[in-house]
Amino acid sequence: MAQVRPGVFVHVGALEDWAPADGGDVANLGFIVGSRCVAVVDTGGTPGVGQALLAAIERTTPLPVCYVINTHAHPDHVLGNVAFTDVTLPTPRFVASAAFARTLGAREPYYLNALRRDFGIPASAATIVYPTIGVAKTLDLDLGDRILSLRAWPTAHTDNDLTVLDLRTRTLFASDLLFVQHLPVLDGSLRGWMAVMADLRRLDVATVVPGHGPASNDWPAVMDAQAAYLGGLLRDTRAAIKSQLTIQQAIERIGVPPGTTWVLTDRFHRRNVTAAFAELEWEDDVPVPPAAPPSAGSSGLGSRGGSG
Amino acid sequence: MHNATRSFAAGALLFFALWAGARAEIMSGDNPEASPVWQKVRASLFQSRPISTASDDVMSFEVPLRAEDAAIVPIAIKTRFPQTPTRYVQKVYVIIDNNPSPISAIFQFTELSGRADIETRVRIDEYTHIRAIAETNDGQLHMVTRFLKAAGGCSAPPGKDAQAALATLGRMKFRVEGDAAGAPAGVSASKAPGNQPLLAQLMISHPNNSGLAMDQVSRLFTPAHFVRQVRVTYGGQLVMSADVDFSISENPNFRFYFLPRGDGELRAEVVDSNDLRFESSLNYRRFD
Q: Which chain A residues have a beta carbon less than 8 Å from that of B208?
């Protein structure tokens, strides 16, 4: 753990995919210490990573953990939650975006399966800990002389991204809305992410902790590389769709930009093209004007109705 | 057709029960015949009929080595001979052994398909064998089997934005590839010779929910809601039909051929598991 600002501690995960090679310890985790209690931001990719985080907190402060915040429902960020439900501890409140529970619920069987199959961890439904507080838009948490400002975002990296801003030190936990060095991974909406980045830039931030990669004081310039990659992905995928390539052809032809310094491009770039294509192929869906002839059904006039 | 629909539904129910067992098993990639799910599917769909390994002059089956995104895995089945009155492919089955409902799609073609090719996108739950089986009009069965590695990391078969998917449910996009510029509004036209099969693409905005996920807010399972049948006609005659389920990705997407015999209407009718019906059509015209 490194103290990036007074009372703000960060553990930088390995720049790898969520897999047993790194013990699932691939996401950035953190905790913030107030005068009354501690808030945790993400808990790691296995229950063991969560235990290690809890031990680090206990070495740092005698104060209890009052909030466990999940920035989004990906396994590398949430599967350590269960470590904070130990009956010998005061139970913290679990906080996430209001959209988090639905998304994690849909994915839970697959993440549990991966824990068992790939990590050999005997996971059960009890391994998955859901939030007790859902944030629809914003929520302030008071740790004692320290306010955290939480904000849930429209669909971007995922459909349940949440950022945490420590107002005292202007430290932003950007969740996976910001990747540094680790290739950005698209699991939500590319257009939504571009829009959210534009909003993020306006935040007054001194230190930013990305979801993956080292913390930085170079805000918002630290986001430029991600903006360039995602902008290129948007441009290239739109061009592929316009020239009527199939999704498979687009995956094969849209390469990473030459001279890229991102890591994990082999693992995630093709996936990003896949998701971008499936999103953007719908975007030229211009409504047909009422005056159009009935034969224009191909342009989205598909009728809808139910026969019960 | 109705028989096919019924047997498909029965198959889906039968194999739903096998899901838990199939998921626990990690397929090694070798000996695809030994897959217990496949043996059940085979007995249900084909009884003891012989199934040959499809040679390259019959069919190819394009599947990536690994599911990059578990929710969207593009697959393409390409048959290697034209549909003629004497020899044509009448059905193509897609079986994904370790998905919750392995019988993922049954496509039906006719002489008017021109080619019995199909491209779509599927969800992959687990390391699995995936099979394409073509049935010709003389009743012969030809199979290609591939092994597909599951996606790693945070990728999962459900969609990326549940609320957005519901908001646009039922919207469709339908087009013929290679539309000629300058065609009149509302008319899809090409300069392709009239005796050549043309490629069409049908996109259906639909969440295609499996019904297997619990909503942690309501503590109820999100009801299954998926596209179950697609029928495409040209000039009123069947070109392609598909009996499908939630193994098909969110926003089902199909690319297939039809043989335009004169100007006519290409029409798609879609029915989902709630008996919602969606239609889209386009007028096709040769354009000289």
A: none
